[in-house]
Amino acid sequence: MKAKIVLLPGDGIGPEVIGEAVRVLNGIVQKFGHTFEYETHLMGGCSIDAHGSSLTDDTLKACQQSNAVLLGAVGGPKWDDPRAKDRPERGLLALRKGMQVFANLRPVKVHPALIDASPLKPEKLQGVDIIVVRELTGGLYFGAKKREVMDGHDTAIDTLEYHDYEVQRVVELAFQLASARRKKVTSVDKANVLESSRLWRQVATSIGAQHSDFTLEHMLVDTASMRLITSPASFDVLVTENMFGDILTDEASVLAGSMGMLPSASLGSGGPGLYEPIHGSAPDIAGQGIANPIGTILSAALLLRYSLKLEEEAQLIEKAVDAVITNGCRTSDLGGSLTTTQMADEIIKRL
Question: Is 90 exceeded by the pLDDT of residue 253?
């Protein structure tokens, strides 16, 4: 297979973990004879410094014309001024919108060898295997925003807006994913308060009625946030709107023992997918060579699965990661001493 992959290393530890993921992908190339063409572009804070924009038109165009995009992380204290005209996170939102990736998939699976790395009691973690599907291009993050003085007070307004088709496509994807799993979908909303959530629940109920052999449960986000800690194994596929999904997936990362372990895939309707670890740029450890590359390497596996349709190759990476964890390989976030490169070396050995 020939494929063009755009690399967006980003800020902080982003370039370090992207570099290791590319090494793993090159291992796949050598084993299976594929041809991957890499094209690297700036995005985030580094792009603001170089071009005055967190996402340039050229970078977005390159992403749109690729087969898939692999992103490291963006942001950092240097660009944290909330009054700034442009911030790294703005580029990320624009990238998602420009690539028309409307669903973010975040698998959360607890490796048996890492149960002790989580702050939860081991008995709570038995059998945890969740996919969170987060709607990615609607809701508060993309609604109209306004700052104005009202009645003598500085006032901020964010609009939470959803159309029925936006809910429909992401809930349908959740059912599609559940069909290959336990056929259980949990739709998370705030329907007791928000009109947008009442629309969400209405659409989800309608789609659930078309899947009589599935279990569909509706859950308020308050309850879901508690259940993720008290009984996480009860979830199979969890689908929710943009901001709720953003918060719940970070909470769920605690189950796996480290945010450095978890990948994500952002998908649309047939265009290139966007793949990134769920962790941030971690500027406090950038340049030290100690970041955990597994989340990014597993994101590369998802890239192979969803964008390039290379299931065998994706599984090979996932099995290699599973083997290194089983064999006790650990970076510092997991209580070990392996460097970023050494962890990748161990994974490549097992390809």
Answer: no
Cα separation, 259 vs 275, in Å, equals 15
The whole-model pTM stands at: 0.92
pLDDT band, residue 117 (cuts 50/70/90): confident
**Of the options 3.30.1780.10, 3.40.50.2300, 3.40.718.10, 3.40.190.100, the CATH number for the domain spanning 1-109+258-351:** 3.40.718.10
Residue at 222: amino acid letter? D
* 49, 116, 164, 222: the active-site residue: 222
pLDDT digits (tens, 9 = 90+) for 192-213: 999 999 999 999 999 999 999 9
pLDDT band at 291 (very low <50, low <70, confident <90, very high): very high
Does the domain made of 119-256 have the CATH classification 3.30.2310.20? no
Catalytic, 222? Answer: yes
Q: With contact defined as beta carbons under 8 Å apart, do 211 and 184 qualify? A: no
Strand partners, 5: 38, 68
Tens-place pLDDT, residues 24-82? 999 999 999 999 999 999 999 999 999 999 999 999 999 999 999 999 999 999 999 88
Whether 57 sits among the annotated catalytic residues: the reply is no
> Domains of the chain: which residue ranges?
1-109+258-351, 119-256
Residue tagged active-site, from 86, 246, 322, 345: 246
Do domains 1-109+258-351 and 119-256 share one topology? The answer is yes
Catalytic residue among 86, 129, 158, 250: 250
Let me know: does 174 contact 227? Beta carbons within 8 Å. no
**Beta strands of the chain (E only): which ranges?**
2-10, 35-40, 68-73, 103-109, 129-135, 145-150, 153-158, 184-189, 215-220, 237-240, 263-267, 273-277
Is 165 an annotated catalytic residue? Answer: no
Token pair listed for 113: 């060898």
User: Is 124 annotated in the active site?
Assistant: no
User: Which residue in 11, 162, 189, 190 is the catalytic one?
Assistant: 190
Per annotation, catalytic residue among 141, 162, 275, 306 = 141
Asked whether 278 and 168 are in contact (CB, 8 A), the reply is no
